[in-house]
Design a protein that fits this description.
about 300 residues; alpha/beta; Lysozyme-like; 2 domains; 9 helices; about 30% helix; binds zinc ion
Length: about 300
């Protein structure tokens, strides 16, 4: 069954985003005859990342972007596209980090485009039908360079996790968070940030670990075989990254092997008996299996 407006509302409210604005009629489920979502689940399959090309500054310094009102006109436009009398994206993200919510069902933002032959092909979204399958977020930006503020990245990362959990998306990878230019290459240039930068920022502000505790045997296997890349090794690396032991790196599911150096550093810092090996005590501490061990 499709996610209801109240369930959507709760998920966004509990996402840890500092500032939210709910626009009138955000819970309406009929924009010019567009209702719900066309996917099998009745929910959106991805969030398309846009910039609005209309910010007052491209300074990404916090002190230049404190005033949320500076993006009021941009927010109004996205709330009611003048041609369609409908939201021009479900979300608008101001430079101060405030998230505006305009809708939760399909509206107008993707336009003509296609994922055929790309890494997003698996979504099976028909050509030129992105609006019926994907949510959109308009991020306030001048759009000339990658000028998003840290406050925007933080909100976007938290929104990504909330949507993943709400709609049952597997993770917060690029597959679920493509850019407008990935949908409409040649026609669109938003957003300026690369997909790997987006992923890096998600990690920085929302963590990498998916919350599942890996099987310790899987970790032992990866430790014994440097060629082996398994989900246990990925979860270990992601968790160590969140704890600050896998610095500046993003653990990549499917291609992540045993993070030997990060484990050695963890063992050293936490006085594990055997510093060179993965053990049950480290497992408990890293994954918080004992109360108060890891915060
Ligand atoms: Zn766009």
């Amino acid at each position: 069954m499709a996610v209801s407006a109240s369930k959507f509302e709760n998920a966004i409210k509990n996402a840890g985003i500092p500032k939210l604005k709910w626009w009138k009629d955000w819970d309406k489920n009929n924009w010019n005859g567009r209702k719900g979502w066309n996917s099998k689940t009745g929910d959106p399959l991805a969030l398309l990342l846009h910039h609005n090309g209309g910010a007052s500054t491209d300074s990404s310094k916090a002190e230049d972007n404190k005033d949320c009102k500076k993006d009021e006109n941009g927010a109004k436009f996205v709330n009611r596209h003048p041609d369609f009398d409908s939201p021009a994206s479900q979300f608008f993200l101001r430079r101060c980090g405030q998230l505006d919510i305009n809708g939760y069902t399909q509206c107008y933002h993707a336009g003509k485009g296609d994922f055929k032959g790309t890494e997003w092909e698996g979504h099976k979204i028909p050509k030129d039908s992105g609006n019926s399958y994907m949510m959109g977020i308009e991020i306030a930006s001048k759009g000339i360079k990658d000028d998003l503020t840290e406050a925007q990245w933080e909100t976007l990362a938290k929104l990504a996790v909330a949507l993943k959990d709400l709609y049952g998306w597997k993770d917060t990878s690029t597959y679920y968070f493509p850019r407008h230019k990935d949908w409409a290459p040649g026609r669109k240039s938003d957003i300026k940030a690369s997909n790997s930068k987006v992923q890096k920022k998600f990690t920085e502000y929302a963590g990498q670990w998916d919350g599942k505790v890996p099987d310790i045997e899987g970790i032992y296997n990866a430790e014994a075989d440097p060629e082996l890349k398994n989900p246990a090794a990925w979860r270990l690396a992601a968790r160590l990254a969140d704890l600050g032991y896998y610095k500046g790196e993003v653990a990549e599911k499917g291609s992540q092997g045993y993070p030997a150096k990060a484990v050695a550093n963890f063992n050293e810092d936490t006085n594990m008996e055997d510093k060179s090996k993965y053990g049950p005590r480290a497992h408990e501490k890293i994954f918080g299996l004992e109360k108060g061990s890891v915060s």
